[in-house]
């Protein structure tokens, strides 16, 4: 008698959080993703509130995926990278649309990674992959706990190879079951999503 295979929910969205060192880490990942990546990628990078978010401009010409700043009430589209705008939290609503909020900062940050991950976990449940990369504070730790509780996949950049290990270390403390990967393996995971 053979055991029943474990059912694994297909991934429908990826949410990424990063802070100090984020640009270098994302430059390693995003330009290498194929144009037929079948999921949306929602990204919060800590950006000073008094500075316009130059990330979209930086990545637009380097990526095969569509790259844009998230807009309030926007429907989430596959094959698109959404960056949280400066000074706004990025949320995912139950009907899988995006929302922007000027609520108080969380972990001294707006946008905050926890806000994105917690709302995305509510919306996507086990169909969400959350990725925490390099950063210098604890933002994202509560979020990965919520993603894991909802049955989603949690990936944390290996603190030993992260430019700034504080954020990945905090995420691992909050979610010891997370998969720990260097950037090359995170990239391979994301490229592999198209075959799952």
UniProtKB/TrEMBL annotation:
Origin superkingdom: Bacteria
Broad enzyme group: hydrolase
Organism this protein belongs to: Sphingobium rhizovicinum
Keywords assigned: Chemotaxis, Hydrolase
PROSITE patterns: CHEB
CheB-type methylesterase domain sequence ranges: 10-196
Catalytic activity: [protein]-L-glutamate 5-O-methyl ester + H2O = L-glutamyl-[protein] + methanol + H(+)
Keyword match Hydrolase: yes
EC number: 3.1.1.61
Active-site residues from the entry: 19, 46, 139
Protein name per the record: protein-glutamate methylesterase
């Amino acid at each position: 008698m053979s055991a029943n295979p474990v059912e694994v929910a297909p991934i429908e969205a990826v949410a990424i959080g990063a802070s100090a060192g984020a640009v270098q880490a994302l430059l390693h990942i995003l330009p290498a993703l194929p144009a037929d990546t079948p999921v949306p990628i929602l990204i919060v990078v800590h950006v000073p509130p008094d500075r316009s978010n130059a990330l979209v401009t930086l990545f637009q010409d380097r990526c095969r995926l569509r790259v844009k700043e998230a807009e309030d009430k926007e429907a989430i589209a596959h094959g698109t990278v959404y960056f949280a705008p400066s000074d706004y939290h990025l949320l995912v609503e139950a009907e899988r649309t995006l929302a922007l909020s000027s609520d108080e900062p969380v972990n001294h940050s707006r946008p905050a990674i926890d806000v994105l991950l917690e709302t995305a976990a509510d919306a996507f449940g086990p169909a969400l992959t959350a990725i925490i990369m390099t950063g210098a504070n604890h933002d994202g730790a509560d979020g990965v706990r919520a993603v894991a509780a909802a049955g989603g996949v949690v990936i944390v950049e290996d603190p030993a190879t992260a430019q700034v290990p504080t954020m990945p270390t905090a995420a691992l403390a909050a979610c010891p079951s997370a998969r720990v990967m260097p950037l090359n393996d995170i990239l391979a995971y994301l490229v592999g999503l198209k075959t799952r």
